[in-house]
Amino acid sequence: MSISREEVQRVAELARLEIAADAVDRVAAQLSGILDFVATLDALDLGDCEPTAFAPAAAPLRADVPDESRRLGPERATAAAPAAEEGYFLVPPIVENVNP
Amino acid sequence: MSRAPNETWKLGAAALAARVRDGRVSVTDAVESGWVGPASMWEHDVNAVAHHDAEVRREAAAGASGQGPLAGVPVLVKDNLCTVEYPTTCASRILAGYRAPYDATVIRRLREAGAVIVGKGNMDEFAMGSSNEYSAYGPTRNPFDLSRVPGGSSGGPAAAVAYGLVPVALGSDTGGSVRQPASFCGVYGLKPTYGRLSRYGLVAFGSSLDQVGIFARHARDVAVTYAVLAGEDGYDATTRLGPAPDVSTFAAGVKGLRFGWPANLWAQGVDAAIVAALERSAIALERAGAVRVVLDFLPGTYGVAAYYLVATAEASSNLARFDGVRYGFRHEEAADVRAMYTRTRSEGFGPEVQRRILLGTYALSSGYYDAYYLKAQRARTRIRREFQSAFAQCDFMLLPAAPSLAFKVGEKTDDPLAMYLSDVFTIGANLAGIPGLTVPAGRTSENLPVGVQMLGPEDSEPNLLRAARALEVGGDVALLSTDEDPEFVWPTKR
Amino acid sequence: MAYEAVIGLECHIQLKTRTKMFCGCEVEFGRPANWNTCPVCLGLPGALPRTNITAIAYALRLGLALGCDIRHESVFARKNYFYPDMPKNYQVTQYDLPLCEHGTLPVVVEGESRTFELMRIHCEEDAGKSFHPERVGDRRISRLEFNRAGTPLLELVTEPVLRTPAECAAFLTQLRKLVRALGISDGDMEKGQLRCDANVSLRPVGQSALGVKTEIKNLNSIKGVEKGVTAEIDRQRRELESGARIVQATLLYDADHDKLAIMRTKESAHDYRYFPEPDLPVLRVTDADLDAARAALPELPWVREARFVSQYGLPPYDAAVLGDSRELADYYEACARGGDAKLASNWIMTEVLRVRNDRGWPLEKWAEQVPAPRMRAFLDKVAAKELPGPVAKQVFAWMADEAGSVDELLALHGIQVQGSAEDLRPLVLQVLDENPGPVAQYLAGKTITIGYLTGAVMKKSGGQAVPQVVQQLLAEELARRG
Ligand SMILES: [Zn+2]
Predict the structure, then answer these.
(1) Is residue B465 part of a domain?
(2) B317 belongs to the catalytic site
(3) CATH code of the domain containing B425
(4) What's residue A97's pLDDT?
(5) What tens digit of pLDDT does each residue of B253-286 get?
(6) Considering only CB atoms, which chain B residues are within 8 Å of A62?
(7) pTM of the model
(8) With an 8 Å Cβ cutoff, are C24 and A62 in contact?
(9) Whole-angstrom Cα distance, residue B341 to residue B19?
């Protein structure tokens, strides 16, 4: 299984990563190598195996009660932010201004 | 209080805590000891610690209760566990300087048990690596041979326990990141059953695989620490319900326990010293009354293949939150928020992390989900069944922790796949959610530690620790319940 | 060629739980930025979600009310895409195994009963808020805050079964009424508690295959949905009639200018990379959970409205207005039961709702000041013709601000209702004496002049007489003079 330059670029864009033009071939080759290895799974007979899910069988849901102990509030919420003002996070302008 | 040379760092955690509780040792001496002696001799070369702060440490010691099962015990925790008083950066540039506003549940439980957090252990960036070479703080080196790696990704905590900085450390194990460095550094390393230790406050890598793990120099210390940490947490919906299994029986011996012996797994490609250590360990277990059950087991490479799809897919999503908006590093030159994301992430993440994000994104992307992620999750079920049928025949399995001894720095950094395959014996436990424990099994003629691993079914920690204790005393049942820990031995002469 | 529109709606319903979907932060409005945030809803490293039991109970309530199939094991999934108001850059939602599927919503559209099929209802978390870019010093920035992030939402998706903008409006009005009756959401579109996107495509009448669809976002009022969908149907029709092809796209509706703007076309569509959320267990719903949700179901609004028509003899229009919320319907019933139901309907629909609009009082505020028994006592006096119209209106106005029974209020304000014949007879005789002309006309058979004479008596009484009584007396006295 080899992955093309274009696919590497598409995936990088989805992941918000930028791959230098001179590195794309190397990354494509590394990913292809890993995918070739991953293809060894094809030899494993999966029969009726369903996908694994782990969490406990009867995990209770959370009571709808406020948890003040974890509330951060504006100051602590923004304390680690690269840019913040009056409790807001500041970012470079958002151009696509509607959440899809 | 005597002012004689403070050598309490030589003590195990349980022994130290007993002395702190009855007032023979002050919390401050207990905590500072490792920094005065071992750290001054080793830390410069080993680089096991990513963050520490003498002031914070002393204040914490002064404020500690001096009570509890880990009274006064200094603990180094991996840099991916959130702590309020030290930075939490996952050894990544993207979290440079980040301070979490909350403590992980396991950190809180350590404090409540009387322990003092002394700093953050170096690691592979975001726990992605098997050698501790992918760290923003530079590689950690193996104290037994500074030209070699300590293993990863919890290499810092493993090395720190080995050279005597702390008697106990916490790591995290997503594919072997506690058990493999434990074997490279000659210490105990436990990955508990998935869901037994809370993941709340553990920066996620592969959520369905991650477990906090425990390093110590003695089986008893692993048991004591496990008892402190294990149990349901209301902040982690994936923790197992009900009380954790009782590990206070760790000294009860292994008489009548059956251990699986899947010799087909080391027929080739495993270092001879490890094969020899397995045989020695098996004989010791038999001497203590356990029964060897020879069985065949599925080769680990299938697990590695499934793992690198599941872990990277989950990681690609877990690491999406590092975008320069709310915390950590931000690339300042960007015309809009989208450009800011891309630049921040491209500069903030190292190459291995980026490689795994790309692989995981690809495995989940439209048109590939069934062929990769879904198939890997089904393979995981197949591997779980494999373990179930093995554990129908035995109580636990004995097998290598890694195919090799500690390898040379730089030996595998250019070959991601070779690096991934060093987890071939550990990954199965993460895929199946079962516990695994690495136990030291001597040193080679070149003074390199050798470890062996035991895997058991869910909640089999008590049996794994009984076996570990039996191996610690060389299978001599008369010594099982001695309180005296074996004497501390320096990794090399200093 | 004649075209018909095919419309599907995607509605987001904000639930009025106390805390957020996956953390214990309170769901509140009007707090300072980032007030209600914690490691979980801020997406801090290491934080993990835990599902709110009330959000699930509310989802079950809606699912049962709509006759959905409820899945005993449903799965939360991560929807991965980068967007600044989404703290984790993925949304926890449900994908291939949602909590509720199928079901129907009965709606009356322009007097005709219709039933619209639903595709699914699932639970998810809301995003935070981003603000339009602004200039700060020499650079442009956007602000972000996360008080809303993690608020529980239900997403309800219809099958593509709606055909007209009026159907869309009626559907949403009915859905809003339902969520209010169930007590799971305030359903206020202006406040974003109910949001709607519409998928629109056109096809030639008689064709069964669907045309290329577009999605309209930003429809934040029922009127907006109607107008936005109308605009898009018109746009597509013009395109098709000019021979162009429709391009799959997302459009934004600008209500202020009644205009649509294309946001993005299919080429740049997202790849959401859904996968099961590993931090959450499978969501299990037991039969006991379903029984509890069923027990919490009130009489459904359309059932109640039908009963208002049959039991109280109300016109369907009145029933629909009074059925708008459970509180209003409950209030109405408490006032109407055993009394003059139509009179109660008239007063509540016009006067009570007027107070609500004029003073901005929610119904709870009104009901606190004028509890149903007090309103009922007032209505009974009106029904017994003990309060002339103007006086009744005056008393009603006082009731909103002052305590006391009707009689006490009248006494307090020095008003004596001249209701009895003996009080009024002197006035009636006086008016007859002063108006010989109209009296003569009446006696000559032009009985309509009694209206004029009644008005004159009312005027003399200062509006405090009961018109029916006045008329009665006039008729008696005129007959005596005839
Ligand atoms: Zn929160």
Answers:
(1) yes
(2) no
(3) 3.90.1300.10
(4) 54
(5) 999 999 999 999 999 999 999 999 999 999 999 9
(6) 234
(7) 0.90
(8) yes
(9) 52
Beta strands in C220-290 (DSSP E): 249-254, 259-265, 275-276, 283-284
At residue B5 the predicted structure's pLDDT band, cuts being 50, 70 and 90, is low
Statement: residue C395 has pLDDT above 90: no
Q: Total domain count for chain B?
A: 1
Categorize the per-residue pLDDT at B2 as very low, low, confident or very high, splitting at 50, 70 and 90. Answer: very low
Residue C439 exposed, middle or buried by CB count within 10 Å (0-12, 13-18, 19+) = buried
How many CB pairs lie under 8 A apart between chains A and C? Answer: 134
Number of neighbouring beta carbons within 10 Å of residue B266: 17
Calpha distance B133→B148 (Å, rounded) = 10
How far does residue C41's CA lie from ligand 1's centre (Å)? 4
Tell me the per-residue pLDDT of B335-383, one tens digit each, with 9 for 90 and over: 999 999 999 999 999 999 999 999 999 999 988 999 999 999 999 999 9
Say whether A48 sits in a helix, a strand or coil: coil
Per-domain residue ranges of chain C: 3-289, 299-388, 421-481
| B410-419, C251-260, C328-337, C416-425: least confident range | C416-425
- B116 found inside a domain: yes
Nearest Cα residue to B293 out of B398, B145, B428 = B398
Instruction: Say how far residue B11 (Cα) sits from the centre of its chain.
Output: 21
One of B153, B281, B404, B460 is an active-site residue; which one?
B153
Centre of ligand 1 from the C-alpha of residue C23, in Å = 5
Query: Which string of DSSP letters, residue by residue, matches C181-215?
Result: HHTS----TTTTSEEEEEEEEEEETT--S----EE
Q: Report the residue from C36, C142, C264 with minimal CB separation from A71.
A: C36
Of B102, B361, B366, the CB nearest to C39: B102
pLDDT of C473 reads 84
Q: Which residues contact C248 (CB under 8 A, 6 or more apart)?
A: C212, C213, C214, C265, C266
Residue of C nearest to A85 (CA): C143
What's the fold here for domain C421-481? Arc Repressor Mutant, subunit A (1.10.10)
All structural domains of chain A: 5-42 (1.10.20)
Does residue B360 belong to any structural domain of this protein? no
Sheet holding C76-80, edge to edge: C90-94, C76-80, C275-276
Active site residue B78: yes
Q: B102-158 pLDDT, tens per residue?
A: 999 999 999 999 999 999 999 999 999 999 999 999 999 999 999 999 999 999 999
Output C322-326 pairs: Cβ under 8 A, ≥24 positions apart. C322/C348, C322/C349, C323/C177, C323/C181, C324/C177, C324/C180, C325/C177, C325/C180, C325/C181, C325/C363, C326/C180, C326/C181, C326/C183, C326/C298, C326/C301
Q: What is the pLDDT of residues B395-451, one digit of tens each?
A: 999 999 999 999 999 998 888 888 888 899 999 999 999 999 999 999 999 999 999
Q: Answer yes or no: is B48 within a domain.
A: yes
Helix (H, G, I), strand (E, B) or coil at C300: coil
The answer on pLDDT for B64 being more than 70 is yes
> Which candidate in B130, B131, B135, B177 is catalytic?
B177
| B200, B207, B337: residue with CB nearest C142 | B337
Q: In angstroms, how far is CA C47 from the centroid of its own chain?
A: 37
Q: Mark yes or no for CB contact A64/C55 under 8 Å.
A: yes
Its domain, for residue B262, covers 5-300+381-479
Distances (CA, A) of C311 to B128, B446, C303, C314, C342: 70, 96, 12, 8, 11
- From CA C257, how far away is CA C255, in angstroms rounded? 5
**Residue C9 in tokens:** 């709606």
Q: How far is A40 from chain B (nearest CA, A)?
A: 7
Q: How far apart are CA B481 and CA B193, in angstroms?
A: 26
Q: Is residue B153 annotated as a catalytic residue, yes or no?
A: yes
